[in-house]
Design a protein that fits this description.
The structure holds 2 protein chains of 2 kinds. By secondary structure, chain A is α/β, with parallel strands linked by helices. Helix content of chain A is 38%, strand content 18%. Chain A has 2 domains: 217 residues, Periplasmic binding protein-like II (D-Maltodextrin-Binding Protein, domain 2), CATH 3.40.190; 96 residues, Periplasmic binding protein-like II (D-Maltodextrin-Binding Protein, domain 2), CATH 3.40.190.10. In chain A, strands 1, 4, 5, 6, 7 and 13 form a 6-stranded mixed sheet that branches. Chain A has a 5-stranded mixed sheet with strand order 10-9-11-8-12, sandwiched between helices. A two-stranded antiparallel ribbon of chain A has the order 2-3. In chain A, helix 3 packs across helix 9, helix 3 crosses helix 13 and helix 9 packs across helix 13. Among the domains of chain B are: 46 residues; 171 residues, MetI-like (MetI-like fold), CATH 1.10.3720. Chain B is built from 12 helices and 8 strands. The chains are: A alpha/beta, B alpha+beta. At the A-B interface, helix 1, helix 4, helix 5, strand 9 and helix 6 of A face helix 2, helix 5, helix 11 and helix 12 of B. Chain A: This is Amino acid ABC transporter substrate-binding protein.
Chain lengths: 338, 396
């Protein structure tokens, strides 16, 4: 239903709007006073509402970082829960300003949907989860298995590729939402549940007996997850892109939400440029020069955001791994602020 | 209305502007042109805007490789097939649910509807409960109940319920032996076709004879004998060419045989029982609309109550039943789009779901999907309206 509405909105937006006559996204956002951010319908660690409707998670915190940069206020953001199927239509039709919903960056999504990926908030890969009592130790032993997955995701294609490449039989049952998928797996309809490995860690918490299930060692795909904006507004694209870069740079420079106020007095030129005491980099984005300072003060650097939501001390217990900074053997790397 | 002619126009004294017929035609043409021009502008503008945003448009995507698997396919399909093929698979899966669902909804609906008028208190109570319970709960809820509650009670394939070691019921669905057609199958199929044709012709003759002479013809038994007996004789003559491949448990699942997936069962059972509750009420309304005098007349002629129902009451009740029944058939077909909730690969799940997401061509795909439902609904309506004309009371 949501998808249908979005499609009509899309058809309306493109059918009725005059060609190329749209106001700048930053001005639109400032005028309405908040950022509309598309998130998942509930994925612990990434975007998950509690019983009072407060959202937490890595993807949610990233939206707050953008709000901190634009408004200096993390409350000026509203969340739209979207299923995997509806997410792109919602962005194309302008229902949301940013999509931050564990979305895999692929060439077809980047080039044919009218969207731009702004970076990678989480480097992930697809894996399989299976009951321990099936006594399977490798994904290569899965021939003939029934596989549960969510429709409208890259996982649906990856699983087809994996089984075909290894000449194995399989049956895929695709559900509309993550909740229905995990319920069907829990009820025994499928032998295997597949999604990104971070998703497996999160969804596993919803099972009746999480300890009866194991995640198989194979990683069958590359899933760089990141925020997405629409084509056609380079300034907005830059803002969302640099919000993440600021967080990664802050971690690299050792700036945290706790010490950022002291860092204002720092003499290190790199730190001075980031917190805005030197140069006018915020102006280039159409923001105040304290844009990165606000992000770090109100949301934290990338490492803080990671540890708070998905790190080893959270129920998800995900080690930094590939998401560590490049200086520590990981892939997180940001261009310099200068 | 058509016969009514404005006196002034007949006399040709006023200008064409005041001729209501001409005026209405002109207005309609103008309105039509306006709608077409606006529609065209809408499409053209949308295309220009989409192109400006570099969003892919057009129907070329139908030729591209789909690259995803589908759990139930009535025609051959693999991951290397095109989106066009996946579209066809989706339509057929939707039609399968619609046809099987309508079949069972009609049978259950008629039985429950007649049961609600039964003289037996227990039957009446059961049927009333059925109607009130099922039509007052949302269909999505019922489908999820059949899928999650019933499915989780089913054993896994290794402990599946065996029916004489031939068919197996588990949480992977129902597996039955698959027929393999050897030499001589042609003859068996031909005799089967002949038997069906003979039964239809014989039935028509029997009905005509009954109407002329009043003597009933035991059509049910003779037809059954023809349809079962003739092919059986052909099978014996050709030495049983049809063999069965038994399903075997291998690894995770059953290999071989034919499988009815639980998603299909849950969706079809859910829709059929839900729609049957509405059909039952239509049937009850139809039957009560037939004046009681008809039943009394039939009774006084000595007809047994079964015959009274079948030959006197139901044919007259059909006039009232058919139009709302058509609506229920259309509802069932459209409600089949709830399939995606239980992972059944219908048109909406495969085409307006996965395909839309992989290609991102929302406007084209939603338009095609709406078109398909429209066509299916119109065809259903045409068939039902034709049938309605046949059973309608002929008035002079």
């Amino acid at each position: 239903m949501k998808r249908l509405l979005s499609t009509f909105a899309l058809a309306g937006a493109f059918g009725l709007a005059a060609v190329g006559a749209q106001a700048a996204k930053l001005d639109q956002v400032k005028a309405k006073g908040f950022i509309q951010c598309g998130v998942s319908q509930g994925l612990p660690g990434f975007s998950n509402p509690d019983d009072k409707g407060n959202w937490t998670g890595l993807d949610v915190d990233f939206c707050r970082a953008v709000a901190a940069a634009v408004f200096g206020d993390t409350t000026k953001v509203k969340f739209t829960p979207l299923s995997a199927k509806d997410r792109f239509t919602a962005l194309q039709s302008g229902d949301i300003d940013v999509l931050s919903r564990n979305t895999t960056w692929t060439i077809s999504r980047d080039t044919s949907l009218g969207l731009n990926f702004t970076g990678v908030t989480y480097y992930d890969g697809q894996g399989f989860m299976i009951r321990k009592d099936k006594k399977v130790n490798s994904a290569l032993e899965l021939s003939g298995a029934s596989v549960c997955t969510q429709t409208g995701t890259t996982t649906e294609q990856n699983v087809a590729d994996f089984f075909r490449a290894n000449n194995m039989q399989y049956e895929v049952i695709a559900f509309a939402t993550a909740d229905e998928t995990i319920k069907a797996y829990d009820s025994g309809r499928c032998d295997v549940y597949t999604t990104d490995r971070s998703g497996l860690a999160a969804e596993r918490l919803k099972l009746t007996n999480p300890d009866d299930h194991i995640v198989l060692p194979e990683i069958i795909s590359k899933e760089p997850l990141g925020p997405v904006v629409s084509h056609g507004d380079d300034q907005w694209f830059d803002i969302v892109k640099w919000a993440l870069f600021a967080q990664v740079n802050a971690e690299e420079l050792g700036i945290t939400s706790k010490n950022v106020d002291e860092m204002l007095k720092s003499t290190n030129p790199e730190i001075k440029r980031l917190v805005g005491t030197e140069g006018k980099f915020g102006e280039g984005l159409g923001l105040g020069n304290d844009w990165a300072f606000q992000i770090v003060k109100l949301v934290g650097n990338y490492g803080e955001m990671y540890d708070r939501n998905v790190g080893p001390d959270t129920p998800l217990k995900l080690a930094r791994g590939t998401n560590a900074l490049w200086t520590k053997g990981g892939l997180q790397y940001a261009p310099p602020i200068r | 209305m058509a016969d009514w002619v404005e006196p002034a126009a007949r006399q040709g004294r006023t200008s064409l502007m005041n001729d209501p017929k001409v005026r209405s035609i002109v207005l309609q043409v103008v309105a039509l042109v306006l709608v077409i021009v606006l529609g065209w502008m809408f499409i053209d503008n949308a295309r220009e805007n989409l192109a400006a945003q570099k969003i892919a448009t057009g129907f070329g995507f139908m030729e591209n490789t789909a690259g995803f698997g589908i759990s139930q396919t009535l025609v051959s399909y693999s991951e290397t097939s095109t989106y066009g093929r996946a579209f066809l698979v989706g339509i057929l899966n939707t039609l399968l649910v619609a046809v099987i669902g309508i079949f069972f909804a009609t049978i259950i609906g008629f039985l429950v509807g007649i049961g609600r008028l039964s003289k037996n208190f227990v039957i009446r109570l059961i049927c009333s409960c059925y109607v009130e319970l099922l039509r007052n709960l949302p269909p999505l809820f019922q489908i999820l109940f059949w899928y999650l509650a019933v499915l989780s009670a089913m054993p896994n394939p290794r402990q599946s319920i065996s029916i004489f070691g031939e068919a197996f019921i588990s949480n992977r669905g129902i597996v039955v032996p698959r027929p393999l057609f050897g030499d001589g199958t042609g003859l068996v199929l031909w005799t089967f076709g002949f038997a069906v044709l003979a039964t239809v012709l014989l039935g028509a003759w029997g009905r005509q004879r009954r109407e002329e002479t009043g003597r009933p013809f035991p059509m049910l038994w003779i037809g059954l004998g023809l349809i079962v007996g003739l092919p059986l004789i052909a099978m014996i003559v050709t030495g049983f060419p049809i063999t069965f491949e038994k399903p075997e448990l291998k690894g995770f699942n059953f290999v071989g045989g034919m499988r009815v997936i639980p998603e299909f069962v849950a969706l079809t059972v859910g829709l059929a029982t839900y729609t049957a509750a509405f059909i039952a009420e239509n049937v009850r309304a139809g039957i009560t609309s037939v004046s009681h005098g008809q039943t009394e007349a039939a009774n006084s002629l000595g007809l047994r109550s079964g015959y009274t129902m079948r030959l006197v009451v139901i044919p007259q009740a059909m006039r009232v039943i058919i139009p709302p029944l058509t609506s229920q058939y259309l509802n069932l077909t459209k409600n089949s789009s709830l399939a995606v909730a239980v992972g059944y690969p219908d048109l909406v799940a495969v085409f307006a779901g996965t395909t839309l997401n992989q290609t991102g061509q929302a406007i084209e795909i939603i338009a095609i999907t709406m078109g398909v439902y429209l066509v299916i609904s119109i065809i259903t309506s045409v068939i039902m309206n034709t049938y309605n004309k046949r059973v309608a009371l002929v008035e002079r």
